[in-house]
Write a structure and sequence with these properties.
There is one protein chain. The chain is α/β, with parallel strands linked by helices and 240 residues long. It has eight helices and eleven strands. It has helices at 12-24, 35-44, 61-70, 88-96, 109-133, 166-176, 185-193, 201-215; strands spanning 4-8, 28-32, 49-53, 79-83, 101-104, 141-143, 146-149, 154-157, 160-162, 225-228, 232-235. A five-stranded parallel β-sheet has the order 2-1-3-4-5, with helices on both faces. A four-stranded antiparallel β-sheet has the order 6-7-8-9, with helices on one face. A hairpin with a 4-residue loop joins strand 7 (146-149) and strand 8 (154-157).
Length: 240
């Protein structure tokens, strides 16, 4: 069964082009051109992925992203955000509110299709991990005050629950499952995000900075996610 994709884009030429290529790739695609209508459609039918423009009439993409993440339950729908803005602030805002990836206009349609495929593969892999971890207490990771429950996707620090975005949780779990192993930014892009394009390493940096702000007592002196200068990052090894 092919994945269903909702495209929320007010520029009809772009929406039609994106829909055409995604259909050629084998996906079922529906397009809407207004923010309010897009949110309504996204909440009334099950979609496997949403391609969401940042600037929309009626309701902007950031507001839609925030509302979708606020109402989310067990079913996680990845969001690929499209933006004509190129500032770091806009990209970080989108990622902070729960977008899984973004493309800045003008973009290559071939790259968009590749990103869509990568996001869908990642969601499938996470679903398999959750099934494997469900009900298995041995999968709970305890690392000196930091507790990660993969089955329930719950994280706590010193007994206090910490609210993480889906991608922040995926990144933390990936680190915690390989303590002491050094990961480059490109490796993390490939292993956690599902793609390894050079030039997007800042996505890793921004996620790690936000992750540290939530789980570390002093983010400037991290205990868990450590920087290996000139190489990348690693999760602290347990002390004997």
């Amino acid at each position: 069964m092919s994945a269903s994709i909702l495209v929320i884009e007010d520029d009809r030429d772009i929406a039609d082009l994106v829909a055409l290529h995604l259909r050629d790739a084998g996906y079922d695609v529906e397009a809407v051109h207004d923010g309010g209508a897009g949110l309504g459609r996204a909440t009334s039918a099950p979609f496997d992925l949403i391609v969401l423009d940042l600037m929309l009439p009626g309701l902007d993409g950031l507001s839609i992203c925030r509302r979708l993440r606020e109402r989310e339950s067990s079913s996680y729908v990845p969001i690929l955000m499209l933006t004509s803005r190129s500032t770091e602030l806009d990209r970080v805002l989108g990622l902070e509110l729960g977008a899984d990836d973004y493309l800045t206009k003008p973009f290559s349609v071939r790259e968009l299709v590749a990103r869509v495929k990568a996001l869908l593969r990642r969601v499938d892999a996470l679903a398999d991990q959750r099934i494997a971890a469900k009900g298995n207490e041995r999968d709970v990771i305890d690392a000196g005050g930091l507790r990660i429950d993969p089955a329930r996707r719950v994280v706590s620090v010193d007994g206090e629950n910490v609210e993480l975005t889906a991608k922040e949780f995926d990144l933390l779990l990936h680190f915690a499952q390989t303590p002491g192993r050094v990961h480059t930014r490109l490796q993390l892009l490939d292993q956690v995000w599902g793609y390894g394009h050079e030039g997007y390493e800042h996505t890793v940096n921004s996620h790690i900075n936000r992750l540290r702000s939530k789980i570390e007592r002093d983010p400037s002196k991290p205990r868990y996610v450590l920087t290996v200068w000139g190489v990348g990052y690693k999760f602290a090894e347990k002390k004997a």
